[in-house]
């Protein structure tokens, strides 16, 4: 059974930004070999990190949307973690990501409602 996934990768900033897609293609072959599909590769480019990773303050971000089996996704994640040019990875099922965004919206709406209620009670 296949699912939709979103992969975020932070690559070593020493890589030439023009080489990012070729580095990713080597790993994404795992997905295509397992009859999965790559929907979108979005390279965000060099960004400042929130905290140092491997004594680096910058990284090259890339986001990949794909459809694959969970076994192929686990193998992709395993191979990415073994590569020295990959600093961090995060794989999310698209359904989970949508649910997280919806839960955060409900939480922030409830907080805004409480804040408005306390502001109205003070007036």
UniProtKB/TrEMBL annotation:
Q: Which family does it belong to?
A: Belongs to the bacterial ribosomal protein bS6 family.
Q: Name one Pfam family in it.
A: Ribosomal_S6
In terms of domain of life, where is this protein from?
Bacteria
Q: List the SUPFAM superfamilies hit by this protein, alphabetically.
A: Ribosomal protein S6
Gene name, per UniProt, is: rpsF
Keywords (A to Z) from UniProt: Ribonucleoprotein, Ribosomal protein, RNA-binding, rRNA-binding
> What is this protein for, i.e. what is its function?
Binds together with bS18 to 16S ribosomal RNA.
Q: Which GO terms describe its molecular function?
A: small ribosomal subunit rRNA binding; structural constituent of ribosome
What this protein is called in its record is: Small ribosomal subunit protein bS6
Residue ranges that the Swiss-Prot or TrEMBL entry lists as coiled coil: none
Cellular-component GO terms for this entry? cytoplasm; ribonucleoprotein complex; ribosome
Record CDD domains: bS6
């Amino acid at each position: 059974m296949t699912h939709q996934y979103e992969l975020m990768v932070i690559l070593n900033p020493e890589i030439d930004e023009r080489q990012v897609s070729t580095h990713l293609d080597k790993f994404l072959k795992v997905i295509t070999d397992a009859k999965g599909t790559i929907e979108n590769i979005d390279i965000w480019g060099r960004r400042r990190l929130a905290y140092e990773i491997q004594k680096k303050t910058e990284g090259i971000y890339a986001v990949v949307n794909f459809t694959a089996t969970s076994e192929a996704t686990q193998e992709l994640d395993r191979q990415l973690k073994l590569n020295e040019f990959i600093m961090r990875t995060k794989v999310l099922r698209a359904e989970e990501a949508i649910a997280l965004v919806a839960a955060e919206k409900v939480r922030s709406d409830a907080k805004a409602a409480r804040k408005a209620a306390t502001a109205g009670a003070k007036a």
